Amino acid sequence: MTTVRCTRYWLALVVAAQVVGGCAKQGGAPDAASPATDRAATPAAPPVGATNPAGQQYAVSDAPSSGETAVNRPDMNASAQQAYRAGMQAFMAGDLQGAKTQFNKSVGADPKAYQAFYSLAVVHERLGAPGNAGSAYQSAIGVVPDYEPAIVGYALLMARAGRVSEAEDFLRSKMGAYPKSAAISTGLAEVKSLQGDSREAQRLAQEALKKNPDYRPAMVTLARDHYRNRRLDLAQYALKGILDGYGDENPPRDKNNAEAHLLRGLIYKEESRRGPAITEFEEAIRLRPDLVEARVQLATYFMEAGNASGAIPHLETAIRYDNANVLAHLSLGDAYRLIGKSAQAKQELEWVAQKDPSLAQPHYNLGLLYLLNSDVPGVNPTQAADKAIVHFEKYKSMKSRSEGADDTEELINRAKAKKALIDAKAAEAAAAASAPADAADGAEGSDGGAAEGGTDAGGAQ
């Protein structure tokens, strides 16, 4: 008897923390939204300072990381602030198109609204428009040349697009102009870490902490670089200092740092510590509901436990904040399949197959959909069996040999047997339908013969 898997899940071994927009700060415009990131990248800075009434963090601080007083920071006019706050509310609700509209209104009302340009860049990144994001980052820097969130956000945007050397040159030039900036040193540390230059990344992050010993993003960068380079014990040590501290004399530096909770959750998951990992992911989401990677990882645990209904809200929210997240779409498609939402499952899985043709997994999941779900739109039972066979064969041809044996061949045979049974039943039904007609034809022929014979007999008489 075949044991059918729900799906295959793999771990993302890179941190993907995404930060969203902020609440109002006293005496001015709301803090700007932090830069969005793809799954292979890290944010410029964790949210600090502003929180909503539930204690959830949404905004980076506008204060210079050097500890100096900010200068030449124009305030938004009233119209721009109104639109900006509306954009923040939309962002916090996962309505990125609405946020984009409002941030555009903000910069239209005030061409010096650098925070709105920055937050507009965040939205464009999340919506998969890096060109527009880059222009918006540059607009923010054009208004406030030393605006650190935009400087680091723009550099990381270039780095994730493969323009790593350009990103490094940009940050080094800014570091020369603003040598006291801990944020720029930390941003450069992230770029070097993404380049694989761990030694330089660690040096730059330590340099940032010399400039500002309480600069939490640099602490997280140290831990993240250790994690990327498989120094898990060192990563855990750094995270303990951030989240737990080392006794009364060394209290936690930032126990509500959502990125640190996410990172520790990823480490626990890698170590097969299911309970602690779930706790960390849940805490990361509590602190920052937009944290896509935490939601995807938590949904994976739900799926592994057979709780597709519990996974779906996390995956739907993740996609609202990162519509290009392939793993979120893949898992959501399989979750929809498991609860019988075949049309939605088909849409999600076909999107993944088109988005990344190199992935084998969506074909396995589509095979399961066509084999096991009886209400897939647009196909009859025979066509569904045929499509199941096609997708399983596609998966079989694409999957890595290193994955070893699986149940694909058995599922192909099951789909073939199902099709044969459908064909046999159809043939039986056709035969049964034609039998009365044949019998009727035979009876009519007999009656006609008898009548004809009767006439002959009468004539003979």
Task: Describe this structure as you would to a colleague.
Helix 1 (78-92) packs antiparallel against helix 2 and helix 7 runs parallel beside helix 9. 47% of the residues are buried. The chain contains 19 helices and no strands. The chain starts with 77 loop residues before the first helix and ends with a helix. 65% of the residues lie in helices and 0% in strands. It is elongated. With 461 residues, it is mainly alpha-helical.
Structural class: mainly alpha
For the sheet with most strands, the description reads: none
Order of SSEs, N→C? HHHHHHHHHHHHHHHHHHH
Mean pLDDT figure:
84
Termini Cα gap = 74 Å
Oligomer: single chain
Which residue ranges are poorly predicted, with pLDDT under 50 across at least 5 consecutive positions? 1-28, 34-56, 450-461
The number of E-state strands comes to 0
How much of the sequence lies in strands comes to under 5%
Q: How helical, in percent, are the residues?
A: 55-70%
Number of helices: 19
Shape: elongated
- Gyration radius over CA: 31 Å
Which terms would index this structure?
single chain, 461 residues, mainly alpha, 65% helix, elongated, disordered N terminus, disordered C terminus
Question: How do the strands and helices of this protein lay out in sequence?
Answer:
Elements: H1 78-92, H2 96-109, H3 114-126, H4 130-143, H5 148-160, H6 164-177, H7 182-195, H8 198-211, H9 216-228, H10 232-243, H11 258-270, H12 274-287, H13 292-304, H14 308-321, H15 326-338, H16 342-355, H17 361-372, H18 381-398, H19 408-460
